[in-house]
Amino acid sequence: MEDITIKIKNALSYKGNWKISDFFFIIELLEKNRIDISFWENEENWATLLNDNIAIGYLWKMFPILIIEDNYLNLVKLNLQNYTFINTINVENLSFKTLKLEDGILSDYLDNNIINYNKFSANDLWFYTNSI
Question: Which CA distances in Å does 129 have to 31, 35, 75, 82, 89?
């Protein structure tokens, strides 16, 4: 289990222009570097990163959090090395329940009764926080 509490807290405390401009700039940067993006403005909270039409990660519009599968971590890190404010969470697989988080830390964005904070996947976090 990987405890992602510190990374989430760091992202929640970020005071930059993430939602306004940085998020979109990072999407453009990733697209220029062979990562496809699926994001529906005003319908989703996360951009899905794709490789050959398969989800390999997520970028949260609300906060500077990037979740990426291990196999693609190096590609993303090379492109984002100058953006240290992005909190990167790498996972072996988006579906594996290998993440944990301090209870209630995302209570403003996540129903505490829906997710098991002691064992969840990146897909779980994406699914339960993706609608606007």
Answer: 23, 22, 26, 27, 16
Total structural domains within the chain: 1
Considering Cα of 110, then 23, then 83, then 35, what sign does the dihedral take? positive
Structure token digits, residue 27: 């999407």
Q: What is the pLDDT of residues 24-33, one digit of tens each?
A: 999 999 998 8
pTM value is 0.93
d(CA 94, CA 56): 7
What are the contacts of 116-120 at 24+ separation with CB within 8 A?
118/1, 119/1
CA atoms of 129 and 14, how far apart (whole Å): 19
Which positions ≥6 away from 74 have C-beta within 8 Å? Answer: none
**Which residue in 115, 30, 106, 122 sits closest to 68, CA to CA?**
122
Residue 6's domain spans which residues?
2-129
